[in-house]
Automatic annotation (TrEMBL), chains A, B:
Gene Ontology molecular function terms on file: metal ion binding; prenyltransferase activity
Protein name: Probable farnesyl diphosphate synthase
Gene3D superfamilies reported for this sequence: Farnesyl Diphosphate Synthase (1.10.600.10)
Organism from which the protein derives: Metarhizobium album
Any GO CC annotation of this UniProt entry: cytoplasm
Keywords: Isoprene biosynthesis, Magnesium, Metal-binding, Transferase
SUPFAM superfamilies: Terpenoid synthases
Family: Belongs to the FPP/GGPP synthase family.
């Protein structure tokens, strides 16, 4: 049954289209100033890794968080593109045989399958590097202060104490299942840190006050947790056809998740509570925060 | 026969000791602000990859280039540490089985041997990310303008159009030997870009004029080329009985090098010419540039 997209879905898709157009541009031009040459095969692998049909939720959060404070939408889009490069680099590396060893992502061969392992490693490395390039580039219409803050925030969200560290804990979890606090920490790092960054980055792009920035950061933490709970719930309950990938995979590897520990009813109640908390955090902005709250509900309720 | 270290060697070692102390500090503290937790095993792998007894030539170039213009030595040391993190990340990833497949580096097991492949991938990723963290961190006493320029310069030197792209060309060279121009481009990217960055970064740290910055950049290009020629010459002449033939490890893999193409005499003449060019570029600074020129000679003449 086909259904009409909601206004929210249309907005999400419109932003994703703009983001993809920018990523296409960033991964076709070149060599840029200070670059010597761009190897076509490496560029193709980066494009394969990043132009993958994703929903582009993280960039959407940057854009809508910036919009809440009337931030420059073009600058927000560029920071969203940088963030998406970091997200996609992590997918390319996580899919490697030495890591999660996945051959398929979104119905397409993963980068090391479509190309080869060495190229996938370098494509991930280059996407991560490109992210910082995009933030600092003259085309990103922000002050040097904003760029410096964004570089630092992004590096902390992605590095040893954030996403990469979370992946390290995740690998360790295959050997020894973490306790509940361990699961919470792992997920706050592995998926939470970048989602938190997305929301905080929007506030930085818009030059929002420290209070506003702290609120968006906290909002990002809540929806980051909701994102992971919804993901793990899907993994626990959905059938492979809906998901487009092997389900039950994380659980089969012996990794604990909160839905696996507490069950579906607990998880759904927790998701409802997280949406309420998110709404409470943004309550001060009234109707202006409606899109962000709809994003929170979308994240918590998504079924694919 | 033991020989006394020269004044230059002592200076190089003193700076290396300062750099190692800073890297030790950067890879022991934590979690920092915005970080959630640092997985001990990942930190240990990063330390293994970076605290490897290297000569720290690249940071030395940052420090001495900054000193030429009376730049803040502490800030230069921090930018040197960031650069060393990028250099060492590239070694960790290049050593992986899918890349150059090396088990030993400087007499110690490589990171994927001492730990495992997944950890080595994540350690490299985290070192690269940490580099940008260090540049942007509040502890780095530079203006936001300088930090933004350094982030952009470093990203361009390390990414698709620089070091990572050079490694991609290097992998392709195993399948099909590049022509002479191809070798020059490959090496300008793979090893040249970071050495060029080292010299230019010193000028940025010191807030030097555009002319000074351009001079240091050009100096960096010359010694980057000298570095690679000396390296390839060493590789070529490692076995005297077969000198002049393609016998070294790179050549055995079918990779062309300029010394392999043109022979030892040509290479030595080229190295002498490069030192003369480097001296000419820095001539305007008179005796103040003596340390940098001694570094150029050291790079061109090193025999280990």
């Amino acid at each position: 049954m086909m259904t009409q997209p909601t206004a929210f879905e249309t907005r999400l898709e419109d932003n994703a289209a703009k983001l993809v157009a920018l990523l296409e541009e960033l991964l076709s031009d070149g060599p840029l100033a200070d670059e010597i040459q761009r190897p076509p095969r490496l560029m193709a692998a980066m494009r394969h890794g990043v132009l993958n049909g994703g929903k582009r939720l993280r960039p959407f959060l940057v854009i809508e968080s910036a919009a809440l404070f009337s931030g420059n939408p073009q600058a927000a889009l560029r920071i969203g593109a940088a963030l998406e490069c970091v997200h996609c680099y992590s997918l390319v590396h996580d899919d490697l045989p030495a890591m999660d060893d996945d051959d398929v992502r979104r119905g397409k061969p993963t980068v090391h399958i479509a190309f080869d392992e060495a190229t996938a490693i370098l494509a991930g490395d280059s996407l991560l590097t490109l992210a910082f390039d995009i933030v600092a580039a003259p085309e990103t219409d922000l002050s040097d202060r904003q760029k410096t803050e964004l570089v630092l925030c992004l590096a902390r969200a992605a590095g040893i104490g954030g996403m990469a560290g979370g992946q390290m804990f995740d690998l360790a979890a295959e050997q020894q299942a973490p306790d509940e606090q361990g699961i919470v920490t792992l997920q706050a790092m592995k998926t939470g840190a970048l989602i938190r960054f997305a929301c905080e980055a929007g506030a930085i792009v818009a030059g929002a006050t420290a209070d506003d920035r702290a609120r968006l950061r906290l909002f990002g933490e809540k929806i980051g947790l909701a994102f992971q709970l919804a993901d793990d719930l899907l993994d626990l309950t959905a059938d492979p056809e809906t998901m487009g990938k092997a389900t039950g995979k994380d659980a089969a590897r012996g990794k604990g998740t909160l839905p696996a520990l507490h069950g579906q009813a607990w998880t759904e109640a927790k998701l409802t509570a997280l949406i309420a908390e998110a709404a409470n955090i943004l309550g001060v902005y009234g109707d202006r925060a409606e899109i962000l709250l709809e994003t929170a509900r979308f994240i918590a309720n998504r079924r694919h």
